[in-house]
Write a structure and sequence with these properties.
The protein is of the alpha/beta class and 350 residues long. It is 49% helix and 13% strand.
Length: 350
């Protein structure tokens, strides 16, 4: 089997994917029609410029404007349940066997949904997808950097009520450069007291100090992106020595200008230095990517061999927020599948 087909056949994991960044143009058209919302185009191809970026994207700020177009249509239980279901459907098409999809409940409250209702509805969509497509799917509730502390504490409290019922963690996302991680110590102290696992967007639009803060003060067990860790050798050592998994999203990181370009992308450097890395899509609809495209880019641009990519995938299993028993079962499933593909043994340690 050639390398490309091998990548296609591998079971995969996506730990960092945003619900509102996963919509297909066809879904957007159907939601708009059902809700009576006019759109600037009536054909899928014509909608692409409104919902998708490419490598000409100038910044994270420009990238985030695509969500402003989509969010008005994601304010009902029916819409949230459907897009959550379709996220699992898309994952199944990529041979993703485990999916953690994240969303900010407070961004879906314009028509009166509570945080609890939003979380419950997304879980229902994921559960329907899991039953139909056999993909294990869980959700992560996001606190937004631009929200007041009380608003984010509300999200944390709601998330705690769904922990173990389809929700596995909480996150912090938004304008990292304007709202540093240190502003959210009290919110994530409450999350830890409630037993919620934590992942934090850090080291994407701002420097490594946010990564350090996220780990040491906010209790992050994983870091979303983390591409700028290398700017401070002490932070890089912290990430490596504590075995904090980085949720790297190559295509998105290039588009948002987290780094200057593919030549500056540090994934090979981090891998060779022994950091725990996972590879994810971030926003497949906005970035025009799939998990397969991400792995193809690693193979073509950085020379990652199939066994190295298998290691990244197994890192994703280990880094998941699944319960220990579920994680053991999933790891066995992945190792068996990799072995059948001839890459299950002697996967290089990091």
């Amino acid at each position: 089997m050639d390398a490309l087909n091998l990548l296609r056949e591998m079971p995969k994991v996506d730990l960092h994917v945003h619900l509102d960044g996963s919509l297909r143009a066809g879904t957007l058209l159907r939601l708009a029609e059902k809700q009576g919302v006019p759109l600037p185009a009536s054909a899928e191809a014509e909608l692409a410029p409104y919902i998708q970026v490419d490598e000409r994207c100038g910044s994270l700020t420009e990238y985030l404007t695509k969500f402003d177009f989509v969010l008005p249509l994601l304010q009902t239980e029916e819409a949230l349940e459907q897009v959550a279901f379709e996220a699992v459907e898309q994952a199944a098409g990529q041979r993703i066997r485990y999916l953690e999809i994240r969303f900010a409940p407070r961004l879906h409250r314009r028509k009166g949904l509570t945080a609890d209702q939003a979380i419950e509805t997304v879980i229902q969509g994921l559960d329907r997808g899991q039953r139909q497509f056999g993909v294990k799917a869980r959700c992560i509730a996001i606190c937004m950097r631009h929200d007041a502390g009380a608003d984010n504490r509300e999200v944390v409290e709601a998330a705690s009520r769904w922990l173990g019922k389809g929700l596995v963690a909480v996150d912090l996302a938004g304008d990292e450069s304007a709202y540093p991680a240190a502003l959210f110590r009290d919110v994530f102290d409450r999350a830890r007291r409630l037993g919620l696992p934590v992942t934090i967007h850090a080291g994407e639009a701002a420097g490594p100090a946010n990564i350090e803060e996220a780990i040491l003060r906010l209790g992050a067990r994983r870091i979303g992106h983390g591409v700028r860790a290398k700017e401070d050798p002490a932070v890089l050592r912290l990430v490596r020595d504590r075995r904090i998994p980085l949720e790297m999203c190559p295509t998105s990181n290039i588009q948002t200008k987290a780094v200057d370009g593919w030549d500056a992308y540090p994934i090979r450097e981090y891998f060779d230095q022994g950091l725990v890395l996972t590879v994810n899509t971030d926003n497949p609809g906005v970035s025009g990517t799939t998990i397969l495209k991400e792995y193809e880019a690693l193979a073509e641009r950085f020379g990652f061999a199939p066994r190295e990519i298998a290691k990244l995938i197994l890192n994703g299993v280990e880094a998941s927020f699944l319960e220990p028993e579920e994680k053991v079962e999933l790891k066995k499933e992945f190792e068996t599948a990799m072995s059948r593909l001839g890459i299950g043994e002697n996967v290089p340690d990091q």
